[in-house]
Amino acid sequence: MNETMTSLLERRSTRHYTEEPVSAEALDAILQAGLWAPTARNAQEIKIAVMSDPAQRVSFRSDFAQADGRPRFANFDYGAPVFLFLYGPKDFPYTELDSGIVVENMATAAEGLGLGTVIIGCIRDYMRSPAAKAWRDVIGMSEDDLFTIGLCIGHIAEPTKKQERKENRVLYVKT
Length: 175
Hints:
By secondary structure, the chain is of the alpha+beta class.
């Protein structure tokens, strides 16, 4: 099996990270994989904000956990040393689809570099709410942008076990 297939089939969502920082070289390679991902109409509309400052991540987690006075899953980033926010134009019909392609490219690149990732959707509603306005400003989003998805990146402290795949998910259409 080639390296690409191995990376795709062996990748797991990592929920236990070490405190070791991600090197600038590795992070740049992962970001390049995202920037070179295919996008609808080759529009290249997806933007990526990088948050690696520990104090800033703690502050964001706290604000997320307290939003609207409802308890939320505060440790959504599992202590990963890098968190990426993906967003793009609200009025572009493929922003969410393209974000999915970009984030998967980056997750696969990280796997190939021996790093772990977990794709994060649970902050979507918060990031789209009025409560997150200050954070949207921090990461450079305009009022015309739509937050789509996040990605945790770091060194794996504890590998995630392989889970069986559900059956009967492929249908061959015959003529």
